[in-house]
Structures are given as C-alpha cells and as structure tokens.
Amino acid sequence: MTVFRRAKASTEAPPPAVPGRGHNAPPAEDARLSAFEDLESQICDLSLMAGIASALFEALFEDVAAHRELNGGRADCYLIDGGTLEKVSFAISNTLTRAADLRASFYEAHATAR
Predict the structure, then answer these.
(1) How does pLDDT run across 34-63, given as a tens digit for each residue?
(2) Is residue 20 in a domain?
(3) Residue numbers of the domain that contains 81
(4) 47 inside domain
(5) Does 75 map to a domain?
(6) What is the pLDDT along the chain (114 residues), one digit of tens a residue?
(7) Distance between CA atoms of 37 and 108, rounded to whole angstroms?
(8) Where in this protein does the record put region Disordered (predicted)?
(9) What angle do the packed helices 27-62 and 64-71 form, to 10 degrees?
(10) What's the start-to-end Cα distance of the chain, in Å?
C-alpha cells in the first residue's frame, strides 16, 4: 500500500527514503508487492467460491425439494451414485483446505517480506 503525505511548508529536508516502503520502494519491490496483492485477491476469490460451493452442496441435502429432485421422490435412493458424491465432497473439502493453507502461507510470506 502506498501512503502519500502532504509536504511540510517549512524548509526542512524531507525524511530519508526507506527502501521497500510505499512510493520509495524500488521497482522490483513494487512488482513483488503488486504480485502479493494479486495473489491475495485470487486467494480470497478461491475461498469465497469454495465456501459457496460447500454451503450449496450441504443445503442441497437439507432442502426437501432439491432432495426429491436428486432421488426421484424416493426416500431410499439418490440418482447420484455414492462414488460421485464422495468425489464431490472430497473436492469441496480439499479446495477449502488448500485455500486455507495458501492463505496462511501468503500472509506468513507477506509478513516476513516486510
């Protein structure tokens, strides 16, 4: 994040530049921080989508009307086979876990980079 400050009206010299901070950052540092910001956005989107998918998947089995569509109105079966349900459930769980791990790694790397 770049912070701009209003210049002092006095004749004092400005404070020395601090490498890696705001608008004083070298171009390579700006590019790295920009990459972090892009990655952060992608991680947030991934987490949001995985959370929505998980909530919809869980709600599917709690919603009586949706449940009827899945099992053809029969209470003893599903039109989706158990293997597919297992794969979908694993995919959702794995996505949420990977997103959480990626988010933690990102924030750890970002904190040590500062």
Answers:
(1) 666 767 777 777 777 777 777 777 766 666
(2) no
(3) 28-113
(4) yes
(5) yes
(6) 344 344 444 455 555 555 555 555 556 566 666 666 767 777 777 777 777 777 777 766 666 666 666 656 665 555 565 666 777 777 778 788 888 888 888 788 777 766
(7) 14
(8) 1-28
(9) 80
(10) 12
Q: Yes or no: say if 17 and 24 are a contact pair by the CB < 8 Å rule.
A: yes
Rounded CA-CA distance 25/17 in Å is: 8
DSSP run (H or E) holding 37:
helix 27-62
Residue 46 within any structural domain of the chain: yes
Q: pTM of the full predicted structure?
A: 0.39
- Tell me if 79 sits within 8 A of 71, measured CB to CB: yes
Alpha-carbon span 95 to 20, nearest angstrom:
34
Residues recorded for the chain: 114
* Closest to 96 (Cα-Cα) out of 49, 61, 38: 49
Residue 62: C-alpha distances to residues 55, 65, 69, 106 (Å)? 11, 9, 12, 35
Structure tokens at 105: 């790694």
Our count of domains for the chain comes to 1
